[in-house]
């Protein structure tokens, strides 16, 4: 049996080039994405946009849904026109998209810009995994995809970590850094990337015919009612999981005192930020994924998923139930452990239950619950969250209950102006006002919503395993 070093040496040059492009693309994306909820909702006098939580949910939920749905189409386009051309188009679109999201101001234009940016991501998403698949074989695929997953998380850590250091200086830096990371990729694809061999299976088919066939294949795959039921349950899991990006940054920005956390570590005030804290999820995955995977491999994929989702739900509890920064960090660690046990097993399970002649079809449709969950996560991070846990919305309720006369937020009266005036009229400091809202409205009870959704996914998977599959490990048997 070959050693890891011998296997790595067999990986071709284009494999490494593709993985470095994945790292920089994830750096750019997560640097922007982990900060996006704050950028959309923070007060305009901070350089952010001051949108409502509902508007934030619509923008991120709709765009991210398309990001995971459109690869069904963009994958067919890439096979038709070539990976290199598709990457060039993606990177040029990315650069324009990041610029537009960072410079447009109105809800309509920002919504359009994020849809455009998500489309750029959909152009990129199917390509690198396809390159990894084409440049590995039975001997090298496990290590190859492990390296790929590691690159995803390295980029997913670096991007938010840097964004967390710069966004309070200027939001422009967040978007320019993302543009710079994509510019590196643009240079790589122009001068270094050589397209791996693509199978020529066109048979004179037009692009439109290829796209229609992709949708026909989806319908064929979804005729498997057991598989459809499994995907439907997983929508719940991904909906709860996505709150890491949709709601968590705004929740901790509202309620957790980062200066106190920084002081306890001997750091200067402002060193730790909400965006920087979210990067810990990827950091913990980089440190622990191999160990967690070695434990999870001892269990059936479905059972590992159930346990992982239960652990992840515990992480959501700690992340959303406390103002103590250390408890929040512990919650991120627990969340990451649950993610490591469940998310990779989802992909593995789909690949193993798929009939040998339909594996590509099943893997393609595995993105459908992720797409649907992004849309639902957006809705739940909107009005539903605002009414339970958003500091500004709770303050508006308190102002109305007290009958205080404060102007509505507008072009010349920001959210920060509103909160400052409210604190003055309530004869409190801003910190005292925050504590009053926490004590009287209990925004931490939002954990019940998100943890409940995750636990329901685990419960329904348990019922699915016991009463639909009847305990049979279908991941070892294609004949179901």
Q: What does this protein structure show overall?
A:
By secondary structure, this protein is mostly helical. It folds into 2 domains: 7-221, MFS general substrate transporter like domains (Growth Hormone, Chain: A); 224-480, Up-down Bundle (Growth Hormone, Chain: A). Helices cover 77% and strands 0% of the residues. Helix 4 packs across helix 6, helix 4 packs across helix 9 (207-221) and helix 5 (83-103) packs antiparallel against helix 6 (107-134). The chain is globular, with a radius of gyration of 23 Å.
How would you describe this structure in keywords?
480 residues; mainly alpha; Growth Hormone, Chain: A; 77% helix
Mean pLDDT rating: 90
CATH fourth-tier homologous superfamily of the largest domain: MFS general substrate transporter like domains
CATH class of the largest domain: Mainly Alpha
Cα distance spanning the termini:
33 Å
Proportion of helical residues: over 70%
Q: Low-confidence stretches at least 5 residues in length (pLDDT < 50)?
A: none
Number of helices: 23
CATH topology of the largest domain: Growth Hormone, Chain: A
- Radius of gyration computed on alpha carbons: 23 Å
Count every beta strand, where a strand is a DSSP E run of 2 or more residues.
Answer: 0
Helix/strand structural class: mainly alpha
Shape designation: globular
From the 3D coordinates, which CATH architecture of the largest domain would you assign?
Up-down Bundle
Strand percentage, roughly? under 5%
Task: Characterize the main sheet.
Answer: none
Count of the separate structural domains: 2
Order of helices and strands: HHHHHHHHHHHHHHHHHHHHHHH
């Amino acid at each position: 049996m070959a050693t890891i070093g011998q296997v790595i040496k067999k990986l071709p040059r284009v494999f490494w080039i593709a993985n470095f492009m994945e790292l920089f693309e994830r750096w750019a994306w997560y640097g922007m994405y982990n900060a996006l909820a704050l950028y959309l909702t923070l007060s305009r006098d901070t350089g952010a946009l001051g949108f409502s939580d509902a508007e934030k949910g619509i923008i991120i939920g709709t765009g991210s849904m398309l990001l995971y749905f459109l690869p069904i189409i963009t994958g067919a386009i890439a096979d038709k026109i070539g990976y290199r051309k598709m990457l060039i188009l993606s990177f040029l679109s990315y650069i324009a998209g990041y610029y537009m999201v960072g410079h447009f101001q109105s809800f309509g234009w920002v919504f359009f810009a994020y849809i455009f940016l998500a489309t750029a991501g959909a152009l990129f998403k199917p390509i690198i995994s396809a390159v990894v698949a084409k440049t590995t074989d039975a001997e090298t695929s496990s290590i190859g995809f492990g390296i790929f997953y590691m690159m995803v998380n390295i980029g997913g850590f670096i991007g938010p970590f840097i964004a967390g250091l710069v966004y309070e200086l200027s939001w422009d830096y967040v978007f320019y850094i993302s543009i710079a990371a994509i510019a590196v990729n643009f240079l790589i694809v122009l001068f270094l990337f050589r397209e791996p061999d693509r199978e020529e299976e066109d048979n004179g088919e037009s692009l439109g015919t290829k796209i229609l066939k992709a949708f026909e294949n989806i319908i064929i795959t979804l005729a498997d009612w057991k598989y459809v039921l499994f995907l439907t349950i997983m929508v719940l899991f991904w909906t709860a999981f996505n709150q890491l990006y949709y709601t968590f940054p705004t929740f901790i920005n509202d309620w957790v005192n980062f200066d106190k956390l920084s002081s306890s570590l001997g750091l200067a005030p402002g060193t730790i930020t909400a965006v920087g804290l979210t990067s810990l999820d990827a950091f913990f995955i980089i440190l622990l994924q191999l160990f967690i995977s070695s434990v999870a491999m001892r269990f059936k994929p479905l059972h590992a998923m159930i346990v992982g989702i239960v652990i992840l739900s515990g992480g959501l509890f700690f992340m959303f139930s406390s103002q103590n920064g250390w408890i929040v960090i512990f919650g991120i660690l627990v969340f990451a452990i649950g993610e490591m046990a469940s998310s990779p097993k989802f992909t593995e399970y789909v690949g193993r239950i798929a009939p040998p002649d339909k594996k590509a079809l099943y893997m393609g449709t595995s993105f459908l619950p992720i797409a649907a969950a992004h849309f639902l996560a957006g809705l739940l991070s909107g009005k539903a969250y605002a009414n339970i846990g958003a500091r500004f919305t709770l303050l508006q309720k308190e102002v109305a209950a007290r009958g205080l006369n404060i102007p509505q937020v507008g072009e010349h009266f920001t959210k920060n102006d509103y909160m400052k005036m409210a604190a003055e009229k309530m004869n409190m400091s801003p910190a005292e006002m925050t504590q009053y809202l926490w004590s009287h409205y209990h925004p931490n009870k939002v954990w019940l919503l998100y943890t409940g959704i995750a636990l329901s996914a685990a419960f329904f998977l348990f019922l699915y395993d016991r009463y639909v599959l009847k305990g049979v490990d279908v991941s070892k048997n294609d004949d179901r």
